[in-house]
Amino acid sequence: MRLTFLAVHLSSVAAVLATGLYPQIPSVASFSSSSGDPFLLASDVRILVDSKEASVGSPSLLDFAQVFREDLISVASFATILPVGVSSKNTASYLFPTIYLTIDTKKQYTLFNGKPTEDGYDLTITHNSITITASAPIGAWWGTRTLLQQVALAVASGSRQITFPIGQLSDSPGWEVRGFMLDVGRHWFDTEFLSDLCIYASFFKINEFHLHASDNLWNPAWLYGDGNEGWKKLYAAFRFQPADGSPIAGLVPRLNESWTQSDFRAMQTTCAQHGITLIPEIDTPGHSLVISQWKPELMENGTPDHLNLSYPDTIPTIKSIWDEFLPWFSSSEVSIGADEYDASLANDYINFVNEMSSYVKQKSGKSVRIWGTYEPSDTLSVSTDITIQHWDFPDDDIPNQLMAAGYQVINSEQDFLYLDGKTSEDNQFPQELDQDLIWGGAPGGKGWAPNVFSASDASNNTSIDNPNLRGSIMPLWNDWGNNATTRLEIYYQLARSLAVFGEKAWSGSEARPLALTRDQFDASYPILNAAAPGQNLNRVVPARNNVVYDLDIAVNGEVTPIESVGPPYTMTFSVQPSSHSPSTGTLFSGIDSILHVANLTFEATGQLYALGYILPQNKWTTVAIHATRDYTYAIIDGDESTKHYWTTLMDLWGDEIVIGNMSFAAPSQTFGGDGFSGAIKDVSIVLGT
């Protein structure tokens, strides 16, 4: 299945570099080739872990090796590989091809600023072995990602054998923080989808997933209008579900849109097993409408989405929220948000941020991050123990000034890195990272990297070795809420963006001779996107001559093994609703979408999108659904002159209503159900439109 998909891209496979390696994402720091027969990867390969280091760390070296084994089976299309073994290198038999993982704590790897990192690794390739050596298990994990990408590119090249040139590879990232953020406060996502995003992002050596887990839609008329109580109904959410009987249970009225502790911890474990740390964010004292709806007495008068920090119960309530959830989090840092608060209350704000930083540290040992927010005060300042996540000029302090003053900074500058679900006001943000800007947007045309904060003013940028520049996080916001996008549409926005961000956040734009060119990235990305193991966010399915299935008769309630089909596809069927139940029930369902009889309504991510077409009863109607990643439309009874599009209405901050097209995966798993009465026949799904 995966090989069939990869074959589409064979004509664009990047040429092998002079080193003998394929250009991968992110690029590696260095590789020195040697003469000799290459290492031949075959299904008899053994994956061995150094017995002295196998249990080191959590996840351990052995944990990472076991995930690597499953990934290698997937990417190389092997039927199986022997289970991971534990062995001393001195006694390991290399009569068969061997990949050996080991830890050498004497190894030293550094970031561009000279600070030590555990993310570095070496690959030593001989004729019959590949040894991955790192100073910690996480470094070995990133080494396995390098091997997997080389395997994927070799498979896609059409070579009959998967080989690696003899030599020595050494690699480490330029920056400590290489993350992405998803606004899960204004759009609901289940932990299964978020776990898949972790797995996918890990393939491109991204190491943090920032979850913006509380927020509200923003409609000024509803929030701030005189005598207006619309704020009570405006969508606001908090995603961590309190325990039964918790004193803060009222904070989460939508229990079906929140994560239980067990679900969150399972997701956190999955992400950790793929090298990614979850960074949870609970945003206060701004963006706090969900708290005001629960306890109105805490809100700032006339500003329901701001909390009144001088009210006696406000800060104790915020602390009680953190008390409940800090034990959930395995990360060494959390974000308290703290952005876009009233500048006239600067001292209250600064005191709050510093108090919360000290409180979180005392309760859990964790450090705190905040979004950059310029608060004018001549007497107080935010503690330099707090990391500042820069996002905008001039709404927060100038990054260079912050770093010069001793603050640690993470670059999330919106001009380069912001995305917004489906659309943004005045098209301020692109649907995916602007490739022209990312590859050539810095002064001098060298492209963006975490040390670049401005495309037009080099004085706002810093050197790659600034000791206070921690790295970068790429955010995707969901300003328009649940109905604007499906979860897969969010993946479509992130997929390519995460890959190019991974290249820049690991390797930068100017420091390394093997850093990718745009052409090299464009050639390698489709292959690596399709090959990324451990998840199937592309919803690739088996097909013969592009036909997924073609059935004459569909039995009501029949279940197929095809859970969902990703676009592009054409799904065709004929339906005859019975007069007993002409407008109810389900036509088709899958894990990503449901198609209801009533108004030919798609359901996805808990939202309904009606086509507005009423199927006639006791009469056969043929429907052909055509879907791409940008839109979905239906042709009824072969009338090609009329295309019926599924759309959504988005309220852009109360300023205007915008119509957006919807993309749906095909609901391919179950035929009929939920009260449908009638008949379905001639059901087919063909890949392509």
From TrEMBL:
The active site is at E340 (proton donor). It comes from the Eukaryota. Its EC number is 3.2.1.52. It comes from Antrodiella citrinella. Keywords: Glycosidase, Hydrolase, Signal. GO terms for molecular function: beta-N-acetylhexosaminidase activity. InterPro entries: Beta_hexosaminidase_sua/sub, ConA-like_dom_sf, GH, GH20_Enzymes, Glyco_hydro_20_cat, Hex-like_dom2, HEX_bac_N. The keyword Hydrolase applies. It catalyses: Hydrolysis of terminal non-reducing N-acetyl-D-hexosamine residues in N-acetyl-beta-D-hexosaminides. One of its GO terms (biological process) is carbohydrate metabolic process. Residues 25-153 form the Beta-hexosaminidase bacterial type N-terminal domain. Belongs to the glycosyl hydrolase 20 family. It holds the Pfam family Glyco_hydro_20. This is beta-N-acetylhexosaminidase. Residues 177-508 form the Glycoside hydrolase family 20 catalytic domain. PANTHER family: BETA-N-ACETYLHEXOSAMINIDASE, PUTATIVE (AFU_ORTHOLOGUE AFUA_2G00640)-RELATED. Residues 1-18 form the signal peptide.
